[in-house]
Amino acid sequence: MLYRALSAFLAFWLLSACGPVLVADDARKRELIMRQHTEVWSRGNLDVIRELYTEDFVGYFHGTVVEGRRSLQAYVESQRDRHPDWRETVQWVIVEGSRGASQAMLQGGAVAALLDLDDAGVRFALEQASLFEFERGRIARQWVYPDPTRPQQALGLQPGH
Length: 161
Description:
The structure is a single chain. It contains 5 helices and 6 strands; from the N terminus they run ααββαββαββα. By secondary structure, the protein is of the alpha+beta class. A 6-stranded mixed sheet has the order 2-1-6-5-4-3. The N and C termini lie far apart (about 65 Å).
């Protein structure tokens, strides 16, 4: 009986002690997601890629597979060179354990790039969801899913909801 009580107390103590650590870890992962939207994509700050992504990162961006931090840097640089007004405004971020998700509103060149439109005429916003997996305290994988229906609705190419 004493053994069971001691085991139960020890299990409770260990689990409650991990609580703040898990919360802090989730907060750190939320920060990684926010920074990749704001610093990497919106501001073009390529220096932070080392901090945010694993060396063997794999990203699935709108039909393009990017493997490794160097490839990611080249991909972001090419997109921002073509579309310097690329902006992503984060609407929400969720993190649980080794996975996370975000929704961001894309504006400017981001929309033009996704819809293969000329930048000059693009004044639409586009919602995009991203899924993330974390390893070793960094983003290891990312999948991006845009919602192309909004600009198509604005252009009259698709009926609204």
